[in-house]
Amino acid sequence: MNADSGILDVIVEVVTALLPLIVFFLIFQTLFLKFPWNRLKRIITGLLVAGLGMIIFLYAVYTGFMPISTMIGEYMMENLDPLVIVGFGFLIGFMATFAEPAVRVLTYQVEQHSTGFMNARLLLLTLSLGVGAFVALGMAKVVYSLDFHSIIISGYLLAMVLMIFCDRDFVSVAFDAGGVATGPMAVSLLMAMMTGLAEAKPGADPLLDGFGIIALIALAPIIFITGLGVIIRIKSEESEQK
Question: Which domain holds residue 168?
């Protein structure tokens, strides 16, 4: 894909995605909202800036981010020790989550609405550690040929047990965090890296072995946030008994 046709394809993709939302807003604006022109002008400006940002981001992902990530995965499989690959998976998973804007928005919102009971920095660190651990597990799945079904079923069984023993507030936050953690950083970087690992491993199938990482990333916050809720609940009960 050359640069000219690539940017045109991305523009069409973004316009196709945003157009139904714009039409939906215009219908509500005409029939119900009736915002004044000054406010409507700011909304239109915001939509244009958002659309431009999506075009730039997606073009960068398609032409640079994903190909580089795939090549990094191939290089690691061909040149690095499996334990080093797993350790690198933890590091890149931690950093991708720590840098994810949507994760920071979530942790800020949770701290604000829990009046500080759920600390934003603690939640951010817990989410980053959890995703890092499960990205490492995903890379171990490829390099050591682990069974994905066993991993994902065991993970959700553990999550169900943890949900029983933690506060309901942590359960709802955990599931939202699972969706937020699978943001553009994780999808564009880590999924491409995993398929690169699978492509470079002899006997591996990129379709069967390279995918599944997003499911693990979505599961990580559920386990780690509910686990944090269990720890906080235990400590609260211990402090009440003293």
Answer: 80-235
